[in-house]
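pasting input
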Amino acid sequence: MTFALPPLPYPSSALEPVISREALELHHDQHHQGYVNKLNEALKEAGFESDDTIEQLLRRLDSLPGTIRKDVRNFGGGHANHSLLWETMSPSAAKPSEKMLTHINQQFGSLSTLRHRFGEEGEALFGSGWIFLAWDDGASRLALSALPNQDSPLSHGMTPLLPCDLWEHAHYLQYRNKRADWIRDWWSLINWKHVETQLEKVRAPGRADTRAMGR
Ligand code: MN3
């Protein structure tokens, strides 16, 4: 099994001025590629064979062989988190639809409350990591999840819908150490259409990967 770096769904200058071309190219071509390479090397070295997607491997992290568990968690998590990050940003970001707002209001009260809590929990995370808007599979509701390093909500019974990268490599070139400003400006890039599509998939009963996992 070999994982590959997905191409960016837009030109590398498309997210300026929030993310400069240089910053996006470094992040995608160097950091994300690095996670993919290290993941592939680790799986090859361990002789691990599977047709699972990276999402499926992360969901069953605890049952993976000890020889690859840590590498799937770190490098596989890095691969999955960044792949979702590129998809959930857009140069022509639109506001959430009425339908999406209904889901947000139901769980958080309002979009501005969600944004406030997202920023607060993101700022509060110590060290490197991510803040996610996710679907809690067990509770069947939207939830926020702040996780360290490259951990994925998939390994915690949740499906990530919207990730914000809180590693310094995500913002240091332009925002230096100002994580709060980074989260504030990143918010204007959210591709809510993609978030909504993922949410509808995860809310649909009997979705394919749930059946495959026997959950
Ligand atoms: Mn990153």
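fyi Confidence is low (pLDDT under 50) at residues 210-215.
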